[in-house]
Write a structure and sequence with these properties.
The structure holds 2 protein chains of 2 kinds. Chain A is mainly α. Chain A contains 7 helices and no strands. By secondary structure, chain B is an all-alpha fold. Helices cover 66% and strands 0% of the residues of chain B. Classes of the chains: A mainly alpha, B mainly alpha.
């Protein structure tokens, strides 16, 4: 079994970090949570490691979001320093703007549509998404079609809004 | 067999088109869809549209991704399941250095602050020895035994032990110079000046004490 987890770890770790990043929007935190999920998998040895990992990760991200919301109330009074940056300021502005637009667009989706889309993007199959979300397998295509359309529309709307603000 | 959903115009619905594009349709259903697409221009146009939407959504989502960094070895997670091991080790190192710094500070400060009335001559004598030893470079061995004798004979001479430890540093010459100055100004401050000279020479962890300050 440990060999199996090692294999899953090698293939799934980046996808799990990406999945978590789009929930907590902090790269380091996403890595920490992904590592913690794998550490738990090493202890619990689940049957379906990959599926189990994404369930655990989604739960951890939800707890994290609740905690972040609580902390935000305190931090709002303090002028915090910008998040750690790894590249040049010019690139960061672009990357940050882009990320915040995607984040806002994802926020326009229903939780179920968003979850299905993020799981698909993390490399899950329709069967796995159905198990994870409780949706019927036959409904996954429709859910993803709706989620994709909504994401693109919301992103483009945000882009236009941003341009108007920039022009005004 | 046609499992895929058709609308009133007998066209393939978008959900099925997305499942087709995602490669998630069972092979029989896939074959049926392809047969329909070959005959239906509307569905072909829809397919092109949905394909573009799918690619666009993937690109949008892909533009918000963290920089991929290599995963730490799985073994590390096994040992330290709760937190990133590097962070734990780093914080432990910090705690250890602070504890060490405080310990050294406490050790250096106390003897100077607790100089008993019978021992004021001690630091001055040793400082003199130190001055002699640095001025006459050929005779450092003489100074060492003297200092050791002092430290073993009486407890307050602990500051001397520290002076011996720091003797090899370049700061030792400063100690000598300072204690020379202290010697040239006779009176009670000489004790404090010598003690200070010792603590300065040992670095920032031993912050100089004000003459009037007591122990912690």
């Amino acid at each position: 079994m440990p060999e199996d987890i090692a294999e899953v770890y090698r293939h799934t770790y980046p996808a799990l970090v990406r999945f978590l990043y789009r929930k907590v929007w902090d790269a380091e935190r996403a890595e920490d949570l992904a590592q913690e999920a794998f550490a738990r998998a090493l202890i619990h040895r689940p049957e379906n490691t990959r599926g189990w990992l994404f369930v655990v990760a989604a739960n951890m991200a939800r707890d994290e979001a609740r905690r972040a919301a609580r902390e935000k109330r305190h931090l709002i009074l303090l002028k915090s320093e910008p998040d750690a940056v790894y590249s040049s300021p010019e690139e960061d502005i672009d990357a940050e703007t882009r990320t915040s637009r995607v984040r806002a667009a994802l926020g326009e989706l229903t939780p179920r549509d968003r979850e299905a889309l993020l799981l698909w993007d993390a490399g899950m199959s329709y069967d796995e998404i159905a198990t994870q979300t409780g949706l019927a397998r036959g409904a996954i295509g429709t859910t993803l079609a709706r989620a994709r359309r909504r994401l693109v529309e919301a992103y483009d709307a945000g882009l236009e809004g941003g341009q108007h603000v920039a022009r005004g | 067999m046609q499992d895929w959903k058709e609308d009133s115009m007998s066209h393939v619905d978008e959900g099925t088109l997305h499942a087709y594009l995602d490669g998630e349709l069972p092979s029989a259903e896939r074959t049926a869809i392809e047969a329909h697409l070959a005959d239906c221009a509307t569905c072909r146009a829809n397919l092109t549209e949905e394909r573009a939407l799918r690619e666009r959504a993937t690109a949008v989502l892909g533009s918000a991704r963290p920089a991929e960094r290599p995963a730490p070895p799985l073994e590390q997670l096994r040992r330290e399941p709760q937190r990133s091991p590097w962070r734990v080790r780093r914080s432990f190192a910090w705690a250890a250095s602070i504890a060490l710094a405080l310990g050294i500070g406490y050790y250096l400060r106390n003897p100077a602050a607790r100089v008993t009335p019978e021992s004021p001559a001690q630091p001055v004598v040793v400082a003199q020895n130190r001055a002699v030893s640095t001025q006459e470079e050929k005779a450092p061995p003489r100074a060492l035994p003297l200092a050791r004798q002092d430290s073993t004979s009486r407890r307050p001479a602990r500051a001397d032990e520290v002076a011996v430890v720091t003797e090899r540093d370049s700061a030792a010459t400063r100690v000598a110079r300072r204690s020379n100055e202290a010697r040239s100004h006779p009176g009670p401050p000489s004790t404090v000046a010598a003690a200070r000279a010792v603590s300065w020479s040992t670095g920032p962890s031993a912050t100089p004490t004000s003459p009037g300050s007591g122990s912690f």
